[in-house]
UniProtKB/TrEMBL annotation:
Cofactor comment: Binds 2 Zn(2+) ions per subunit.
Cofactor(s) the protein requires to work: Zn(2+)
Residues annotated for Zn(2+) 2 binding in this entry: 141, 176, 384
UniProt keyword Protease, yes or no: yes
Domain of life of the source: Bacteria
The species this protein was found in: Flavobacterium profundi
UniProt main location, coarse: cytoplasm
Localization annotation: Cytoplasm
Record's protein name: Peptidase T
Amino acid sequence: MQHIIDRFISYVTVDTESDPNSNTTPSTAKQWDLANQLVEELKQIGLQEVTIDENAYIMATLPSNVDHEVPTIGFVSHFDTTPDFTGANVTPQIIENYDGKDIVLNAAQNIILSPTYFEDLLLYKGQTLITTDGTTLLGADDKAGITEIVSAMEYLIQHPEIKHGKIRVGFTPDEEIGRGAHKFDVEKFGCDWAYTMDGSQIGELEYENFNAAGAKITFKGKSVHPGYAKGKMINSMLLANEFISALPENEVPERTSDYEGFFHVHHLNGSIEETVLQLIIRDHDKDLFEARKELIHTIATKINNQYAKQFGEDICIAEVKDQYYNMREKVEPVFHIVEIAEKAMKEVGITPIIKPIRGGTDGSQLSYKGLPCPNIFAGGHNFHGKYEYVPVESMVKATEVIVKIAELTAQK
Ligand SMILES: [Zn+2]
């Protein structure tokens, strides 16, 4: 267990925050620091064909140790951390034999990680937790995934009696800014299927995610002195208000769960002459997703018709762009890849928790690029902030799951 802790800490103490405002890949030069470190480590533990390309995508191979044909499978995770919270100078704290009580992350700033608020903590009573010092995120998302993949490969190398096919390892930059899969060379990776090790709680296994689109709606207006505005002024902010009111009021993130989709207004910026409204559209169901996008256009058309005479041209311009799709469509035809993961979990004593992701993963993009890619837990909780933590036991179990998947895939 100490070995896995040391490995994890050697990753999280390297700052790899990504940056959505950058156009380069990786988006930040500092991601190379960990990328180069990982390349050396992969070589050092004995993996072959260790490569890093000009965009810092890392790939490596563990060759098959059986004579019969076995599908090539891959394990993928990302080494960047979210720009939502600082990842510089991470100082992890290790809490052994967690007693189920409040954890003081930072006494000076009175930052407490409490099971009263984060009930999940109680699942890990008696275990070893790694937390932050309250001033940074931890980076278990997704350096826990990297730790598990490297540890599993090392274990397989040291235990040649465990039979497996060819295994590929893939580490990406920039997942947190939605670009982890963009420059991932699926052909070069050469796998029949893969798993991202990027879920949260122990047992999580996910192969369904949202269909996602973003909409930008621009409202025009006409500014006139308010004292003389009757019949003349058009206030674009009020048009935006009208638009928002025409959306189903209960279909918002704060009132939906499981398979319920939503519209989420996340930006509104306006003056009388022009207002820009930005929202995202999410739904697991493809038809409902299309219907949601259609509703945006229907409302826009209605407003345009209403003001056609007075304004003379379209007063409301709706631009809707697809962002990613539900991987279920790509995973269902090869459902055995989910079943193998499920079986692997059960064989190492974990109860699988299969549920739809209310978001996207790199795996969804990879699935549409031809690499079906469900998501498996990496073990961390409270991603993207100072309350992030990971139980070491969960990382150990995830490592065992990887080893077991390799083994099950090679069974005749
Ligand atoms: Zn992640």
